[in-house]
Protein 1
Amino acid sequence: MSPKHTYGSAALLRPLIRLLGVLRGHRAMFWQSTASLALSLLTAAAAAGLSAYAASLVVQDPSDTGLAQLLLLGLACAVIAHGAFTWIESWLSHVMAYRVIDGLRLGLHDGIERLTPGGLGKRRGGEVAGAAMADAETLEWFYAHTVGASLCAAVSPLVVVGALIALTGPIGLIAFAGVAALIAVPWFLGPLQARQGKAVRDGLGDLKAITLEGAEGLREMLSLGLAERQKRRVLEATERVQRRKRALALRAGAESALADLIVAATFIAFLVALTAAVSGGRLDPALFPAAMVLLTAAFIPASAIFPMFQRLGEMSAAATRVLDVIDAPAQVADTGTDSAGARQRGDGAVRFEHVDFAYEAGTPVLDGLDFTVPAGEHVAVVGASGAGKTTLAHLLMRFWDPVSGRVLLDGTDLRERPIAAVRERIALIPQHPYVFRGTVRSNLDLAVPGADEAAMWKALESAQLADTVREWPAGLDEAVGENGATLSGGQRQRLAIAQAFLREADVLVMDEAAAHLDGIGEQALARAVAEVMDGRTTLVIAHRVSTIRHADRVLFLDGGRLADTGTHTELLERNPAYRALLAQAELPADEPAEG
Ligand SMILES: Nc1ncnc2c1ncn2[C@@H]1O[C@H](COP(=O)(O)OP(=O)(O)OP(=O)(O)O)[C@@H](O)[C@H]1O
C-alpha cells in the first residue's frame, strides 16, 4: 500500500493546522472568542447543576431553604453570565469569520494570479477560482466556529468531569470514558470519511463539467445529433454521485447510531453506579440529580464537535486544495528591479535572442528563435498552426520565461524589469479577448483607469467601433453582458483593440486579431493600425494576406524556428514553404498588393 493510503486522522489535521496561519493576525480575537465559548458552556453547566442541587435540597427538607436560596442566587448569576458570554462569543466569532474568509480569499486571489496562465494546466481559471472560493467558505466555518469549539469540547468536559469526580468520586470516571469514546468514533473513522468525501466531490466535479459542457456546446451537440448521448452521460454521472452519497450517508448514519449507543450506555452505567452509591450510603442523595445534570453538561460540547469530526476529511481536503493555490510558486519570478526610467517615444525594440522554450520538458516549442524587431517596425508573424506564434507573444508578455536565451525590450532582458513595468509597455490583443461584465465604458476604464470620454471615443474611432457604439441607445454605457455576450465576435475584438489603443503602449501584439472581421472592416482596421501605431512596434500574428502584406516584414516560423524573414513579396518569390502555407490556408497568395 502506498503511504498515500496509510494516513490516519492525525494526517488529515496537518493541512488544517498549516492553514491555521490565517488566524495568526486574529490571535487575540480567537482566544477571546474561545474563552467566551468555554465560559458560556461552563456557566450553563453550573446553572444546570446548581438548579438541580437546589431543587433536591428543597425536596429533601422544605423547612430548611437557607442553602437553597444561596444556590438560587448563584444560579441567577450563572444564567446572566451565560447569556453575556454567549452573546460575546457569537459577536467575536462572526467578526473573526469575515476576517478569516477575507484573508483566505486574498491569498487565493494572489495564488491564482501567480499561476495564470501557465500553471492552471488544463483547468480553466474560473473553475479553479470557483472551487477554491467554495473551499474558502467551507474553511471559514471551520476556523471561525469550529477550532474554538473543539478546544472547548476538549477542555470543558474535563472541567465538568473534574467537578463530577469531586462530587461522586470514581463514578465520575464513567463520564470521562463516555465522552472520550464519543469523540473517538468519528476520529478513527476519519480516513474512511475522507475517501468517501473525496469520491463524492470528484463525482460532483465530473457532473458539473459534463453539465457545463452540455450547456456551452449545446448548439454543436444538437447539430451533431449528440443530445441523447449527452443525456445518458448526465444520467450516468448523476447515478455515480448518488451511489457515492448513499455510501457516505450509510457511514455517517452508522456513526451517529454508534454515538447514540455510547451516550445511552454511559448514562445507564452512570445511573446504575450512582444508585448503588446512594443506596450503599456512600453518596448524599441530594447530589444525585445534580450529578445527572452535570453528566449531560459533559456531553454537550462533545456532541457539538461530533459533526465537525464527521467532516474532518472534507475540511482537510478543502485545506489541501487551498494550500495548493496559496503555496503555488510564481509561474515567472517577478524579481526584476530595472523600472526602465522615463519612456521615450520611439522606444519599443523587441529582440528574441536564441530563445528555446518548451511547455513540457522534452517537447520543444521554440527552438533557437533569434530575431530583432527595431522600434516602430510593423511585423507579421506567419506560420502553420502550432508553429509557436502565440507562444512567442506570450513570452513577450512574460506569461512564461524562455528555457534558454533572452527576450529583450529596448536592449534590456525582460527578467530584469518588474513584470508590471513590462506589461505596461506592451499591449496584447489575444485571439479570444475577454470582455468583462459591465459596459463599454467600464471595459475601457479597465484599460486606463480614469480615462476621459474624448480619449475613449478616439480609441473606439481607431478600432472602427465608434459608429456602432454611437448607434446603441446607451452609447458608452451600453451593457455588454457576461464576457461580451451581447457583442459579435468582431465587436469583442474591436473593443479589445480600442483598449490597446487607449493604453498607448510602445509595442502592440495582435494574435489573429483580424480573424472575426469582414474584408472591409479588416482593411479599415489595417489602415487604423498603421495610423495609430505610427512609430510604435507592432507584431501581428496573421494568416491573411490582406493583413500580412501591410507589414514591413514577415517573420516566417516553422516548427518553432525562424525559417525565413523578409517582405511578403520576397518570401512569396523565394520560399516555396511560405507559398505552400498560404495556398494551404486557401489564401489568395497572388492577391495583388494594395498601392
Ligand atoms: N499551455 C500549453 N501547454 C502545453 N502545450 C502548449 C500550450 N500552449 C500551446 N502548446 C503547444 O505549443 C505548440 C505551439 O502552440 P502555439 O499556440 O504557440 O501555436 P500557434 O502557432 O499560435 O498555433 P495557432 O496558429 O493554431 O494558434 C503547439 O504544439 C501547442 O499544442
Note: The domain at 350-584 is CATH 3.40.50.300 (Rossmann fold).
Protein 2
Amino acid sequence: MFLIGLTGGIASGKSTVSEMFRRLGSAVIDADKVAREVVLPGKPAWKKIKQIFGEEFILDNGSVDRDKLGQVIFNDDKKRKLLNSITHPEIQKNIIWKCVWLLITGHQFVILDLPLLFETGNMLPYLTFTVVVSCSTDQQIKRLMSRNNLTREEAINRIDIQMPLTQKCHLAAAVIDNSGERDLTEKQVVDWFKRFCASRAHWKVRILIFLAFVVLWGFYKFILGFFR
Ligand SMILES: CC(C)(COP(=O)(O)OP(=O)(O)OC[C@H]1O[C@@H](n2cnc3c(N)ncnc32)[C@H](O)[C@@H]1O)[C@@H](O)C(=O)NCCC(=O)NCCS
Ligand SMILES: Nc1ncnc2c1ncn2[C@@H]1O[C@H](COP(=O)(O)OP(=O)(O)OP(=O)(O)O)[C@@H](O)[C@H]1O
C-alpha cells in the first residue's frame, strides 16, 4: 500500500487536492474528520475535554463547542498544547486503524490529509511519500477569512501558529502549487498520481524479479541434490 502524507498550511487547499486524488481512485483519510470523530459525546477525548476545559465547552446537545474551543486554543499556546495532548494520541490511533482496514480491503493508494504532519511528526515513519499543498500567504488569509468568516487578524493568527508553509515545502518530497485556478492544480494532481502508479509498477517488477530469483535458487539446489 502507498500511504501518501498530504499537508500544507491552513486553508492552502489540502481538502481540495485530496478530493482530486479521491476522484482518481485513491482512498482518503481526512485527519480533520478524524479529529471530529474522536471528540464525539462519550468518547475518551470528549470526557477529558469536559473534565479539563469545563462544562462550558459542551453544547446543550452534548457535542463539543468547536467555535468556543477554537477561539481559546488558537489564541493560547498552553491551552492548544493541552488540547493536542488530549486529542492527538486518539487521532493517531484512529488513523492507524483506518490504514489497517484500507490495507485489508485492498486499497493501493491512500492519501492521508494531515494538517500537522510535520509539526507532530508522529505519522512520518509510516509514509511512502509526502506532498505539500502550497499557495501564497495572502491567498491563505483571503481563503480563510471568506471560508471561516474571520477577521484578517484572526486569519493571520491561525496561520502563524503552524509551521511556516515555506518550511513545509522544503521538508516535503513534492509540492503541489494551488495558487492558481483549480484546473491548474488538478493537472499537477493527475501528474503526481501517474508517477505514483509508475512507482508502484516498478515495485511490482522488483518483487517479481526477487520471487523468480528465489524459485531459480530453489530449483538449482534441487538439481544439485539430485545429482549428488
Ligand atoms: C480547535 C477545534 C475544535 C476547532 O474546530 P473547527 O471545526 O473550527 O476547525 P477544524 O477542526 O476544521 O480545523 C481547521 C484547521 O485548523 C488547523 N488546526 C486545527 N487544530 C489545530 C491545532 N491544534 N494546531 C494548529 N492548527 C490546528 C488545521 O489546519 C485544520 O485543518 C479543532 O480544530 C480541534 O479539535 N483541534 C485539535 C485537534 C487537531 O490538532 N486537529 C488538526 C488535525 S490533526
Ligand atoms: N485554487 C483555488 N482557487 C480558489 N479558491 C480555492 C482554491 N483551492 C481552494 N480554494 C478555497 O479555499 C478554501 C480552503 O481550501 P481547502 O478547504 O481545500 O483548504 P484546507 O487546506 O483543506 O483547509 P484546512 O487547513 O482548514 O483544512 C476553500 O473555501 C476552497 O474552496
Note: The longest helix spans residues 182-227.
